[in-house]
Amino acid sequence: MTAPDAGPDPAVARAWALLEAGRPEQALDQLARVPAALAEDPSVFAARAEALVRTERWAEAATVARHGLAATGPDPGLFAQLGLALCELGDHPSAEGAYLNGLREDPHDVQLLCRYAQLCLVANQVEKATGLLGLAAEEDPGHPMVYVVRIQAAWVRGGDRAAERASREFLGAYPDIAVARAMHGFTASVRGRTGTAFASFRQAVAAEPTDPDYAEAAREARIAAHPLLLPLRPVYRLGAIRTWLLAAGVIVGLRLLGQREVAGIAGVVWLGYVVYSWLVPLLVRRLVPGRGPYR
Amino acid sequence: MLVREDLFTPTIAPMPAPAKPPWPAPSTLYPAAFGGAVAAAAILVLNGGRLGIRAGHRLMVVGVAVAALVCRLWLLRSGLGLTGIYSISVAAEGIGVYLVAAPVHRRAFRSYQLRADAPTAARVVPGLVADVSGWLLEAVLAVFVLGSA
Fold first, then answer.
1. Do B29 and A128 touch (CB under 8 A)?
2. A13 located within any domain
3. What confidence score (pLDDT) does residue B119 get?
């Protein structure tokens, strides 16, 4: 969410500036300084709920959004924040209710359409999510949330190439924002491009050093890119199914050609490779430190 | 095909966390490939329940596993030389069952991964149990079928 209004008090404007700079805790400190007379102002509720969302204090974010809606009346931005907080708290039907209430106020709100589409993806309702994404794209095809949901929808459907293409477009359109880097890293890791994934997640961490999700993703990418896992790159790139079919095909082919001993050796080598793929990642996970720096 | 009104109609039911977390869908390939159709069906049906996949699809997986098992036993009995590649035929059978279930399982698992809290279960012990049980059952059936030929 971006700043809806400069707000009635300089502290609110400063809070939004801090939010945009990725410093939500300091934004909350600023909002604590807002005069009591302005505490019921819609912009204060919006900024406070946004800061709580960004610090992943979901229960508090839901409470603030609910208070804001009760005090100031229906507001699509507050409904979007309430829906997201409820979704993260696992109350998915109430989250849907919040999104639908928001969309009744403004059926063209791209953020609400995209958040609702994400909720449908979580519920494995991919067709509905795609429909909502289509509506959001009609409103603003270049909105960052539209790119994010496009990537997620393609990935859930199993279209990893399409997801990777969309993430490249996203990065091309928004080269400086952390989420574009992170989504690029995510699709690169899905496609087995471990080096690219690590580089992208490092850039995401550099852009938003306080985000624990980016730091965790960077660590996972670093594990996957570890030199000890180099022999597993074919599995990462081809996927387990194709690799298994290839191995089985080679072994059966050798047997059909009468090379029973070679086929036996190939079978043992393959079994060793599978065991390596199970054990060595566990070892690497212990070798790679739990904390950064991943920049 | 959904129309605009459908998109604004509530459809989200409560999604309680499964009593036991699911196994990652791609990793169910391993017990399937090592254990054959019986192991594949056991793991896929269990995981399907954890992922909230509808009962009809789980029954279909069982049906495909039975068909694959019958097909392999028939080929063994017909003397096509499959006895020489017993383990490969078990793997092919399990991979076949896995491939039938994979698209639905992958989609359900990826949706599950988008949840705020999406733990996954350890899979080594259940996989080994399914594999050993599958091998024993398939071996008994193979001995029985080949012995009666």
1. no
2. yes
3. 86
